[in-house]
Amino acid sequence: MVISNKPLKFIIALLIAFLPVLGFSNEPVASTQIQTETTALTKETASKSTDEKSEVKAKILEVIGHHVLDGHDFSLFADEEAGVHYGFSLPIILWDNGVQFFSSSKFKHGESVAENNGNYYVLHHEKIYKTDASGTLLGDEHHPTNVKPIDLSITKGVLTIMVVALLMFLLFTSLAKSYAKNGGISSGFGRLFEPIVIYIRDEIAIPNIGEKHYKRYMSYLLTIFFFVWFLNIFGLTPLGINVTGNIAITFGLAVITFVITNITANKNYWGHIFWMPGVPLPMKIILAPIELLGVFIKPFSLMIRLYANIFAGHIVLMSLIGLMFIFKNWLGSSLSFLLSFAISTIEILVALLQAYIFTMLSALYFGSAVEEHHHEEAH
User: Fold this and answer.
1) What pLDDT is stored for residue 3 in this prediction?
2) pTM, full prediction
């Protein structure tokens, strides 16, 4: 049987022509639907990713704020999912129509209203405000207008200061007793700090104050050096301690240096401030207010230098650690870890350096206060 080629070719061509219509007539619609679903899914994923990153950033900022600010309880760490905080409470001491004394556990980390003797208080951003039983805060969220009682509480920073003071007392008392017991030879753990004591005496106190007067200031210089150094070291631990990064603490230390300098100053010191010798009369009148201003600028520089260096170091270190949780990949997190480790090493040196600078500048101020009158100047 013979089949003509022309009809066969016509049928094949017809099938090929209608094949896209029969087989893929609905494909554009399906492809569009898939593309639309893919785009929606991508947008939803991107939105979730953005929200997650914003939430992580907000959490990091909260942790940094909790670390650098003082606290009314001592939290070692917390399980946010379970809502459990591990640490211990501290005593709250308020002056509000008499002394109000209770535990910080009543605040439940700022989530509850604390009641004591019929008075109600809330803890908001580590500040205590007086409220009603509902705990309502008036005014702006960040700046409530509620009455703030005088807060004399034992905060985390105050507790750390007490611990450091007790540690220094035990350490250097044992060192002093070992000198008397062993005929001027130190013994015990305190002997590790003997070279530092000698260095402060020979390289800071005597050169800047002089052989005649340096012994009057040695107790303060040794105390301030080890006090600032130990507090700086405590601040590098994961306990969330930032005492020397608190401007109120550095202000108090600077005020002590200011008071000692001006109380022990001789008449030559005040003479150089109010009536500088060896200069013409008009210049004396001009220089007097400038020199008087310098009396206050010196302790102010002490306060700002210590506060700014320690506070900035904590912010940078905590920010680098927080980047690990933002990147969430091996490259970014590894770089953040290496930078955090490097900054931590530098901060150990900064802790010692800031104690040295504070002690050195205090010795310089003391030396200028007791400097003897030079006959060459008068001549």
Assistant:
1) 46
2) 0.79
